[in-house]
């Protein structure tokens, strides 16, 4: 993917309240789960961190962590992922952040990673935008600045607030690439409507 080295943080631990508590990460289309699909989309990442329950099925090259306390919001989850990433040796210069509930994210990821190839040194990150809607959980940021921005307590903070210090530039993403699964209706529409 454009030869850009990147890490990935995947948020996979929300309450899924509009799905009656069924974990989004484990919804399947019959051949793969949303989690497996998202991990595959970032298969070129140097380090992949999944933030979610300890029993999520991931391969040995994917690291699991959890925000403390659990369910303290996506910004807290993102901070937990960034903290785990900072503890590793030699993280890549850029880090992708994604929510686990977007089955068509691979085309968006290509656009995000390609945006970094010509990034000026003062550009600290990029946030995706699809059809006029900004997507705070679809972005790519310089790793060191992301870790720094998320180093304080992010409990119950919004992701937009957490990322504001990075002043992300906007990247236009392909239509439909960030369609998400957060109701049973959207689960059926994407085919990810089976429980693992």
Automatic annotation (TrEMBL):
Pfam families attached to this UniProt entry: NTP_transf_3 (PF12804)
Name-wise, this protein is: NTP transferase domain-containing protein
Gene3D superfamilies, per database record: Spore Coat Polysaccharide Biosynthesis Protein SpsA, Chain A
Q: Which terms does the record give in the GO molecular function aspect?
A: nucleotidyltransferase activity
Is Transferase given among the entry's keywords? yes
Q: Which UniProt keywords apply?
A: Transferase
Taking every annotated instance into account, which residue ranges of this chain make up the domain MobA-like NTP transferase? 8-153
Starting at the broadest rank, the lineage of the source organism is:
Bacteria, Bacillati, Actinomycetota, Actinomycetes, Micrococcales
Q: Which PANTHER family match?
A: MOLYBDENUM COFACTOR GUANYLYLTRANSFERASE (PTHR19136)
Organism whose genome encodes this protein = Rothia terrae
Quote the InterPro entries the UniProt record gives.
Answer: MobA-like_NTP_Trfase (IPR025877), Nucleotide-diphossugar_trans (IPR029044)
